[in-house]
Design a protein that fits this description.
single chain, about 230 residues, alpha/beta, Arc Repressor Mutant, subunit A, 5-stranded parallel beta sheet
Length: about 230
């Protein structure tokens, strides 16, 4: 008998009934198990009982700020968070991402786009367990503290630089395609325009390689992507 694959559980934290109902129906049709909370207090309870794989979190909630709850989730769990809100200001977007949101969508949105983003987030590697530290070469990556040290000295990385290095490190010795990099970290960036990705790879090499022009760890696999070697 073939074991049925577990369906991902999505926690929707949204106080507008119309959005809550539409999301619940749409995501259920797409194969997700959906649980809903209309405020932060309910969300905290469902976080324990439902054990969601991802949280869709509205910014404006009746019993507090979704941004504050995002920060709380980020500090206490490893559950990915997608902010869903009607606020479109650039400052709000940046703030949400800086305090721990994995992605950010604004109302009104297309269900197909949201589903694609959810699946992209859930495809991220999960092999790094709580408290695990990866050592290779003269680098040490702490996934909980989000720090990187090289020969005992901390390496200053931007948020995206760390996320990119973490993506490579979770697949140490394996080729990570450009498409996976873009799909995971730069949603919406066309595969034909990879300047942003190349710039981040270049900056990483400058920080972790003795000779960035002739890298020993972060290698380019021409026409495919990148590979991080010990």
């Amino acid at each position: 008998m073939v074991e049925q694959q577990r369906r991902p559980v999505i926690l929707i934290v949204e106080d507008e009934e119309s959005y809550q109902d539409a999301l619940s129906i749409g995501l259920s049709v797409e194969g997700f198990v959906v649980v809903g909370a209309t405020n932060i207090a309910e969300a905290r309870e469902l976080l324990v009982t439902a054990k969601p794989d991802l949280v869709l979190l509205d910014v404006m909630l009746p019993d507090g700020s979704g941004l504050d709850y995002c920060r709380e989730l980020h500090d206490t769990t490893r559950i990915p968070i997608i902010m869903v809100t009607a606020r479109t200001g650039e400052v709000d977007v940046i703030l949400g991402l800086e305090i721990g949101a994995t992605d950010y969508v604004t109302k009104p949105y297309r269900l197909r786009e949201l589903v694609a983003r959810i699946r992209a987030v859930l495809r991220r590697p999960t092999s790094i367990s709580e408290g695990e530290v990866v050592n290779f070469g003269d680098l040490r990556i702490d996934f909980i503290r989000r720090t990187v040290t090289r020969r005992g000295h901390e390496v200053e990385l931007s948020r995206k630089e760390f996320d990119l290095l973490a993506l490579f490190a979770t697949r140490l010795g394996q080729v990570v395609t450009r498409e996976v990099c873009l799909d995971t970290l730069w949603w919406g960036l066309e595969l034909s325009d990879t300047r942003t990705l190349d710039t981040h790879v270049k900056r990483l090499r400058q920080k972790i390689e003795d000779d960035p022009a002739n890298p020993r760890h972060l290698l380019t696999i021409r026409g495919v992507g990148f590979r991080l070697d010990a």
